[in-house]
Amino acid sequence: MEVEIILFIVIILCFVFMIITQIVFWKQRQLARERIITDWAKFLNAERFNDIKSIKLYGDKLIWNRYISQEQIDRLNEVLASRLEKHASLESLYEVTKNRRSYLSDDERGRIYGR
Predict the structure, then answer these.
(1) Has residue 7 been placed in a domain?
(2) Number of domains in the chain
(3) Is 114 left (phi over 0), alpha (psi -120 to 50) or beta?
(4) What is the pLDDT of residues 67-103, one digit of tens each?
(5) Domain for residue 23, yes or no?
(6) I need a labelling partner for 22 at 20 to 30 A (CA). Which of 8, 31, 33, 90 fits?
(7) What is the Cα–Cα distance from 33 to 77, expressed in whole angstroms?
(8) Which residues contact 33 (CB under 8 A, 6 or more apart)?
(9) Averaged pLDDT, 100-113
(10) Cα dihedral across residues 84, 89, 92, 97: positive or negative
């Protein structure tokens, strides 16, 4: 009888753990979806003022955000490539952007960016 009770408790705890894990992942995806828009605006502002420190900061945040679009990746790549000659600190971020591809479908892109 004790074995069944222990097994039942373990199964319940596993289900609770799985539910909590899914909630945490869902919340992280939701925050990433919201941050992509503000980070993109801040990146464009940094580009306009040629603020290399901010370009690197927001470029890094953007490139690892799962909701970045291919157009944004291409623009990020262009901005970094145009500044590589004078700012070697952008080299590692540029290498990452060259190989990054967007994972968004057209439907997801429309939901996030309203297109």
Answers:
(1) no
(2) 1
(3) left
(4) 888 889 889 989 999 998 898 888 888 888 888 776 6
(5) no
(6) 8
(7) 21
(8) 67, 112
(9) 70
(10) negative
Which residues contact residue 68 at a Cβ distance below 8 angstroms, ignoring those fewer than 6 apart?
Answer: 36, 62, 76, 100, 102, 104
Length in residues, the chain: 115
CB 36 within 8 A of CB 68: yes
Whole-number pLDDT of residue 99: 80
**What is the span of the domain harbouring residue 85?**
35-113
Please name which of 102, 41, 93 lies closest in space to residue 68, comparing C-alpha atoms: 102
Record the pTM: 0.75
Angstrom distance (rounded) from CA 99 to CA 1: 57
12 in a domain, yes or no?
no
Q: What is the pLDDT of residue 114?
A: 66
Is 98 a domain residue?
A: yes
